[in-house]
Amino acid sequence: MAYPTPNNQCWPEPVPYIFRDFGVQLLQPHQITILYSQDHEVRRMRMNQPHPAQVTPSWHGDSVGHYQGDTLVVDTVGIKQDRPFAMLDMYGTPYTKALHVVERYRLIDYEAAKGAVERAGKENVRIPGWGPQPNYRGKGLQLQFTVEDEGVFTTRWSATVTYLRAAIEWPEIVCAENPHEYYAGKDTAVPTSDKPDF
What we know:
8-stranded mixed β-sheet; mainly beta
């Protein structure tokens, strides 16, 4: 879900809310670039560098990464909060400028990934058409992230998201103009008029 603005534009989703997207692609080598299926958002992480002394807040924050063995570890700070609904998730959980997120990405074997995706399907909302590719038996991508924000939470918390290769190609989505309700599998009735109302 993106946030429509009064002038009909969309705001990117903050970290970690962006992790609820159904599609994700990681590109590398010199920096990590993540493409998210929701509104084709793009996020970049510098590798093997520290955060700058003064971080300029941005929609996805300042992200730096490094490898610990076969695990990509990404540290993010400096996430913008100047929007009407500065929230971490679809439930409205707020955050402050102290938000700090650490992500750990690793490949896991097919059986472990399949089990995690099946459990998530029972516990969470399933979006029609976004299931895994039926004949795929390769590895899955597991993301474990930890959130801390002393301005909101009394302790840090963690969650895990597991991805398998998607059964469909990414549809083109334009937030300001696309009337297709991906969650209902139909188009929204767009209001029309026979004559101007001004």
